[in-house]
Write a structure and sequence with these properties.
It comes from Herpetotheres cachinnans (Laughing falcon). This protein is an alpha/beta fold. Helix content is 33%, strand content 17%.
Length: 224
């Protein structure tokens, strides 16, 4: 039997949900590793809905579970029903939904609140010493919950290639060790069984982002 890996989504679309290419890359690489993905999302309203053409919020309301089901092709469960006992690992792709729907990082930064369900799931996998894979902005969840952990969101010096590098500085303020890595690289916190990669925190070609996520997934499955 292949490893059973929970994949937690935060909606559908980079600006208000899970980043679709990152989510797809996670699912493709899990399949390639012979692992079984079980997709979950919280049954809550999104913080807001963004028009992805204009990059502006709209008056629309959408549900995180319903939107995430688009990526999961309908094969998805309510995060409240996740049981860590039957699962071998956890992966959370990035996208602004992580910072808006799974936490309040987008509006409060290091003073954010993590959604109760999301925090409980992360703590359960951590307590069971089961690996957790995080990419793009999702490492901030671990930074908030596991002080002293080691993570990467890419680089800590802002430039055209690394437009979100200030995130690394904020994570350091939470007491984490940030490790600079290229987009095709991962960082493994052996003690905490955390595997992180920068993905779209880097302004890089999509195949490099895909490759970095592939290394993260491969390591998570290996540790499981």
């Amino acid at each position: 039997m292949g490893k059973r890996v929970a994949v937690v989504l935060a909606g559908c679309g980079v600006y208000d949900g899970s980043e679709i290419h990152e989510s797809s890359a996670v699912l493709v690489h899990l399949s390639r590793e012979g692992a079984q993905a079980e997709v979950y999302a919280p049954d809550v309203d999104q913080m807001h809905v963004v028009d992805h053409v204009k990059g502006q919020p709209t008056q629309e309301k959408r549900n995180v579970l319903v939107e995430s089901a688009r990526i999961a092709r309908g094969n998805i469960k309510d995060l409240a029903k996740l049981d860590v006992k039957g699962l071998d690992a956890l992966i959370i792709p990035g996208g602004f939904g992580v910072a808006k729907n799974l936490s309040t990082w987008a509006t409060q930064g290091k003073n954010c609140i993590i959604s109760k369900e999301v925090e409980e799931v992360l703590r359960a996998f951590h307590a069971a010493k089961k690996p957790i894979g995080l990419c793009c902005i999702s490492p901030v969840l671990a930074a908030k919950i596991f002080p002293g952990c080691e993570l990467t969101v890419g680089h800590d010096t802002e430039c055209e290639k690394w437009p979100y590098a200030k995130t690394a500085e904020t994570m350091k303020e939470l007491g984490c060790k940030h490790v600079n890595k290229h987009v095709t690289e991962i960082h493994v916190d052996v003690k905490n069984k955390l595997v992180t990669t920068s993905a779209f925190m880097c302004n890089a070609p999509i195949h490099e982002i895909y490759d970095g996520i592939g290394k993260m997934v491969k390591e998570v499955v290996r540790l499981a």
